[in-house]
Amino acid sequence: MKTSRISSRAAHIATALMIPVAIVAASSAVAWLPGPRALSFAVLIGLFLVLLATRAVQDLLH
Known about the structure:
By secondary structure, this protein is mainly α. The chain has helices at 2-32, 37-61.
């Protein structure tokens, strides 16, 4: 039971750390690309990083 508690805590920490990374990546993409494509590119980067965080959390839990 203690191991699952530690894994759950590590998963929460990993997810919490990925949120600012996704925000910084998305904002830098908006600053880097001019025009309306920047927002869609930023959203794609954000979604990709959220997917990576979800995969990392799943790996930690199993």
